[in-house]
Amino acid sequence: MTITKLARQVNPALKEVRIGVRREDPRRIWERRVPLTPDAVYDLVSTGNVVVSVQSCSRRIFKDEEYQKAGANVVKSVNHNDFDIVLGIKEPLVEEITPLKPSPTRLVPHSPTHFMFSHTIKGQAYNMPLLSKFVAPSHSKKPSTLYPDLIDFELITSSEGGKRTVGFGWFAGGELAGVLESLASMAQAHLEIGIASPFLYTPRPHTLPSLDRLRAALKEIGETIAANGTPAALGPFVIGLTGNGNVSQGCLSMLQELPIEKVRVEDLEALVKNPTTSLNKIYLVHAQPEDYFIRSDGGKYSRDHYYSSPQSYVSVFAERIAPYLTLFLNGTGWSPSFPRLMSNDQLATALSRAQTLGGARFTNIGDISCDVEGGLQFLTKATTISSPFYKVRTDDMSAELPAVQMMSVDILPASIPLDASNHFSSALGPYLKGLIECQLNPDKAPYPEALARARIASEGVLTNKHKWLQPAVDEVHMASGSRAHVAPVDGQQEKPRVVDQSKVPPETATRAPEKKHKILMLGSGMVAGPAVDLLASTADVQLVIGSNSLLEMQSLAAPHHNVAYRMVDIGRRDTYEHLIKDADVVISLLPAPMHPEIAKLCIQHRSHLITASYIAPEMEALALEAKRADITILNEIGLDPGIDHISARAMLSDISAKSLHVSSFTSFCGGLPAPEDSHVPLRYKFSWRPNGVLTAATNPATFKLKKEIIKVPGEDLLKTVFPNLPISDKFELEGIANRDSLKYMPVYRTERAETFLRGTLRYPGFCSLMQSFRSLGLLNQSDKIHVQDWTTFVNQCVSLHLNIQDGPLPPLSSIIPLEDVAQLHDALVFLGLARSPLQAIADTKPMPPLPEGNCTPLDVFAYLLSHKLKYGRNERDMVVLAHEVVTRCPKTNDYRVHTSNLTVFGKLAADPDLQRGERPASAMARTVGIPVALAARMVARNKETFKRGVLRPTSKDIFMPLMSNLEEMGLGMKEATSKLGKQDARRTVSASVYESYSNATRFERDVAGNGRSAGDLNDTSKYLDREWVDEWPEGEEGDFMKKDGRV
């Protein structure tokens, strides 16, 4: 039995519904609209069953006296304890929603209903405190009747088609006001450049009391134009309009007051360039989607195809239409996954073209849709009636291009409050009467269906469509002292999440069967292919790819009927947050600095996250939040880090089970060209971002060697080379240390090891040549240059690096060791950065276009290398991973060498061992993408029981199943063990490293008295992550360590 019915049984004589109309937030100085007009009040109170009280307010478009004459009570305040229904336009002040108390004056004693535009349905953080006034915390024991109901005007829709039915339509003044504000803004912008136009007399909407008066004023301006024309300096006056909904129809209605001549898109160029074009008209081009959206495959525009496959279209508005417009009125909406009308870089393109035509074209825009960073990416903010416009420049615009004046008032109907209020009140009336009838006669009149759909919360509980907002509400209650339980207790099911489908057009949304695990992959770069192929061939997975590259996503998804993709802009959270919310597991293949922000969204929406990147401090700081949100954030699950962790832990676990003590641990990994394809400078080619390779060559490193702690500063890393490592008998390799090895000693349970080193593999000569590049300033990340010509690029870098502003550069031999000069010269000739008298051996490939704007030397060099050192057709890359562990048996004092190696070559189309559903891919892509996909699949299938927090794949319950999966995918390690005698010591990797160290004179040692000493390792707290210690299983090293009293 409902509360309404109960109330009628308790007090059947009560026959009045009490309605309160509250004032709007006094901080909204232009909000003069009302939900009920005096005429509507009279209509309601005349029934004898409704009492209306209106809170006094001198700002409203209707005076208090008008409401009194209509039969309303004018009161000082509206407290919902005294009313059955409370009406307002925008959100009230949070403090005005006071705790409810039972009230004999209300027909519904405990649950008044609030109507408003609440701005909560998308999870807007700033309004969660407001929503918490209507929603109880999870597992609350308080009576639900202490919370009022909340209905949002925005959600009141028709039963067929779901079209909004209560709002401020174009004929209520919103879009009509937008035209006037845009014309007034434009007139001022023209005056600033010395041109006065008739539009200077355009009235701003709030300056006249009605639409009729505003129309009359604009019509008078139109008559002036028809008689005297527009300024010749502006040329033919062209207004562009987009959209076919209420917004555009409202604009067309107001523009009818001007001497309009409609023109086609194809007529624009001739119209603007023709010196005889009449200036006594306003030319209007109402552009349709087929005018500015073209298919990437060359096909013809089709509305059905556009909505089903928006990723197949690109906008040419900037080229075809924008340059010819004097004023642009944007009346079209935009949703993520759809192409933008214009991007930031397209704005520069349009303005450059417009400059050649004259007339200050495309310098004035009225975005009446007011979709910030939406269809017009460069619309950066909404404006107000008090300050209706601003100027915008993008980073892509050169100094000679003019700024664009943007009018983007987001409450345009408020500027014509009379007409807006009349329309709104009329639209709300039938729904309000339906609710009143239900409250008066609950046994006969059902609750209106439209209001049921629009209800966000009822009796303290979110309706099903909005339950995903509960965690945000719980956070507010917890912050305010409520004992709400936010995180699920052990064994409790995860609360259901409902995706905000308004962010994904229903025509393009892909709905997977409920039994399928939803995995979202953010990023579509070099390593994505193998991950997509593996997940797409997994029957219980539904994969969605999110990226800003349409071509990459199309290529990735092409062979698979069950892979969806969505265009996202990682700079715009609203383009991908709904995808994260809908996913069980998110894979982030984005650049590592972006992972923490993605992780925060995963925490917010309780989606698990997988990355291949090292755990950054910002990510590690989220460990507790991840546990509270009951999610897994699994990192370092690519190649290095990734397969190296998994294989090392598996190997060390087996060694520990045999009670052997680890004396030395070395691990080297590298991605290289196959030997036959390595005959280029650096003997290196790029299968991933060159920037990463170059910056890695400048990282400092720390490792342990024969009980000594070695610290290598970043500037010395390339000088600290380990040559001739005995890893392969088929090709020679050199190595350099990789970052801070010491922090992995507790992770690998090897604190007692005398040697511990993780390193990177390269072919011989890589480090000396890269060091030469560094000495020339090519790896400079601190300063920026503008490259005028490739032949002067090196000179620019050297001058900047050596701080030489004028005068000749020093000879190369004074910068580079003499023995390295020839190698460097040959490399520069190959790269097109130097000339050689022996042109026959020079690289004849054309140079790439010069990068635009100011860039760091490293970024420019990486850009060049990506062109010059890329893999050719039928060329393969190679990945080499080699672990070596030297152990001692405490019983026999025998030493053994344990090796675990992996060598993987890129797969070409002709390779016979391609897995089912797998496409040709580089070795790097396979050894990063496949582990990522396996981890995502494992977490998705075990999401209820998988470990929570910020993790690495170093606990047994993670690395053991992944090792098995990798072997099935052809990425298994090859292990071997042999005895080690004193005469064999030099053939080990650890001995080779030590020999290099002993012979070197340029190592910077950090021993006792200078930073960390060997004795520091007796206290591992500075490297030990307590979360990882908690993961150690009984047995293995855990028992052995406990005996030592250190765990």
UniProtKB/TrEMBL annotation:
Q: In its UniProt entry, what is this protein called?
A: Alanine dehydrogenase/pyridine nucleotide transhydrogenase N-terminal domain-containing protein
Q: Name one GO cellular component term.
A: cytoplasm
Single GO MF descriptor: saccharopine dehydrogenase activity
Which UniProt keywords are listed?
Amino-acid biosynthesis, Lysine biosynthesis, NADP, Oxidoreductase
- PANTHER family xrefs: ALPHA-AMINOADIPIC SEMIALDEHYDE SYNTHASE, MITOCHONDRIAL (PTHR11133:SF22), SACCHAROPINE DEHYDROGENASE (PTHR11133)
Instruction: Describe the location of the Alanine dehydrogenase/pyridine nucleotide transhydrogenase N-terminal domain by residue ranges.
Output: 20-177
- The answer to whether keyword Nucleotidyltransferase applies is no
